[in-house]
C-alpha cells in the first residue's frame, strides 16, 4: 500500500498520511492500505489528510472500495463499495 503513517486521534478514528503516487511530482490521488483487528459492528473513521486536488468525484457520490477476506471466503464476495458521510476537500498538508 501507500500508507506512510496512521495516527489514532480518537477511539475508532485515525488520521492517515499517504505516500505520493508513483511517477508524479508528489501528487496524491490514489490510496491502498490494510486494516486489521477490527470490531464487528463498530464504525471507523479514516481521515486522509494529504489529498490536494481541489475537488473529487467523492463529492458526486462515489464511495471507496473495500475487500474483506472474511466476506470473500464465507460468501464469495469480492470488492464492494463502502462508507457513508464521505466528504472530500482540499487541505493544506503538502510535501515540502
Topology:
Elements: E1 3-10, E2 13-18, E3 45-48, E4 65-67, H1 69-75, E5 79-81
Parallel strand pairs: 2-3
Antiparallel strand pairs: 1-2, 4-5
Describe this structure in words.
With 96 residues, the chain is mostly beta strands. The chain has one helix at residues 69-75; strands at 3-10, 13-18, 45-48, 65-67, 79-81. The strands form two sheets. A three-stranded mixed beta sheet has the order 1-2-3, with no helix packed on it. A hairpin with a 2-residue loop joins strand 1 (3-10) and strand 2 (13-18). The mean pLDDT is 87.
Q: What is Rg?
A: 14 Å
How far from one another are the termini?
Answer: 22 Å
The helix tally amounts to 1
What is the global morphology? globular
Helix-strand topology string: EEEEHE
Low-confidence runs of at least 5 consecutive residues: none
Mean pLDDT: 87
SS class: mainly beta
Largest sheet composition: 3 strands, mixed
How much of the polypeptide forms β-strand, as a percent range?
25-35%
State the strand order across the main sheet: 1-2-3
Query: How many β-strand stretches?
Result: 5
Percentage of residues assigned to helices: under 10%
Structure, briefly:
The chain is mainly beta and 96 residues long.
List keywords for this structure.
globular, 96 residues, mainly beta, 25% strand, three-stranded mixed sheet
Amino acid at each position: 500500500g501507500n500508507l506512510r503513517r496512521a495516527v489514532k486521534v480518537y477511539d475508532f478514528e485515525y488520521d492517515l498520511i499517504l505516500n505520493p503516487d508513483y511517477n508524479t511530482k508528489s501528487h496524491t490521488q490514489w490510496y491502498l492500505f490494510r486494516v486489521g483487528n477490527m470490531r464487528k459492528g463498530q464504525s471507523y473513521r479514516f481521515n486522509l489528510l494529504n489529498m490536494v486536488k481541489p475537488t473529487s468525484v467523492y463529492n458526486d457520490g462515489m464511495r471507496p472500495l473495500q475487500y474483506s477476506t472474511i466476506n470473500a471466503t464465507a460468501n464469495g464476495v469480492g470488492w464492494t463499495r463502502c462508507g457513508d458521510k464521505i466528504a472530500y476537500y482540499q487541505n493544506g498538508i503538502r510535501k515540502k
